[in-house]
Amino acid sequence: MMAERKMGVLIHGAGWVSTQHIAAFRANPHTEVVAISSRTLASAHKRAEEAHLDVACYDDYAAALQHEGVDIVSVCTPQHVHADNVIAAAQAGKHIAIEKPMAMTLDEIAGMHDAISAAAVKTVVSFVLRWNPMFCNAKALIADGAIGEIYAVETDYQSYLADWWSGYADGRRASTGGSAMLVGGCHAIDAMRWFAGSGEFGPANAVEVFAYAGGKRKGAVEQYNYYTHEWHDGAPLEYDGLEMALVRFDNGVLGKVSVNFECIQPYTFPIRVFGDKGTIRDNRLYSHRHGAEWQEIPGVCPDSSDVTHHPFQAQMDHFVECIQGGVESHCNFADAIQTHEIALAAQECYRTGRPVKLPLI
């Protein structure tokens, strides 16, 4: 019997996160990395060599998309070029794994949506914490009624983002990063939606947002490195480093989410889920089923910003199964629009000082 042909993967973008996309697709028995493309040929070759891959390397994305045997494109480029990259991949008929944030503006999202819909390709957006082991167990407990009916969710993304991060040069700028909510806080927004939704794989959708932005870092050159506990001068953030938003969901749940690029501490990702019969606080459960004691929720916690800590393997395995089964991911492009709209609604709220109704598209 002839062996099944593996689906070929083009890794587009050779930055930090691409290491995990490469590792995940290499480990999946149904896929293989067949090409790497980047802004420079040197960076593509470097990534291939580090992964001990003998594959074609490109500094021409259009040519890479035509490489023989490419079925999936993994978009790992800086966020301000995601829209163009995704549209080109869809027009080439490729399934697409898209790093977060997937876009910068509503116009970009609309253009991407049209291209993906026209091509009828499968997509997954890297809100990778949906596959975090503790998240999975907490979501299953919620679906099983362990804390009753959810009425409130609070999530926070707390990480002092600075030039220790290889993507800081683009991420710190208003034109290429956009906002703290887009650059990193979108993970907390998506987690809020995930835990506010019913069922084991169902997120909730927002209908209204009100937000504030502030902090002390915008325009300041002094910055902190929490890995080395050192202060130094460097390029400043061009947007507010602190954002807080209140969100009302279509199922009546209220949400509170924040992103804090200014906190002098290691990375943390606090989670609180309140139900009428119990509470989840980080990896602890207080349930009507267990008496007056907190129970530990098993599984790895989302307690590091290092991409090697994130469950990319589970995400990409899920995506491959979706392609093979001809079904959509619960974290596909259409669903991720809802997460991005909350971040973009916050920006609109800063301009107008008024609550913003959703959907925006």
Can you walk me through this structure?
This protein has 361 residues and is an alpha/beta fold. It has two domains: 7-128 and 316-331, Rossmann fold (3-Layer(aba) Sandwich), CATH 3.40.50; 130-306 and 338-357, Dihydrodipicolinate Reductase, domain 2, CATH 3.30.360.10. Helix content is 32%, strand content 24%. Strand 5 (95-98), helix 5 and strand 6 (123-125) form a beta-alpha-beta unit. Helix 1 (18-27) crosses helix 9 (312-325), helix 4 packs parallel to helix 5 (106-119) and helix 5 (106-119) runs antiparallel to helix 10 (333-352). The longest helix is centred in the C-terminal third of the chain and has 20 residues, at 333-352. It starts with 6 loop residues before the first strand and ends with a strand. The mean pLDDT is 97.
Features:
Dihydrodipicolinate Reductase, domain 2, 24% strand, alpha/beta, Rossmann fold, 2 domains, 32% helix, nine-stranded mixed sheet, six-stranded parallel sheet, 361 residues, globular, single chain
Architecture blueprint of SSEs:
Elements: E1 7-12, H1 18-27, E2 31-37, H2 41-50, E3 56-58, H3 61-65, E4 70-75, H4 82-91, E5 95-98, H5 106-119, E6 123-125, H6 133-143, E7 150-158, H7 168-171, H8 180-196, E8 206-214, E9 222-225, E10 230-233, E11 242-249, E12 254-260, E13 271-275, E14 278-281, E15 284-287, E16 295-296, H9 312-325, H10 333-352, E17 356-357
Parallel strand pairs: 1-2, 1-4, 2-3, 4-5, 5-6, 7-12
Antiparallel strand pairs: 7-13, 8-11, 8-17, 9-10, 11-12, 13-14, 14-15, 15-16
Helix pairs in contact: 1-9, 4-5, 5-10, 8-10
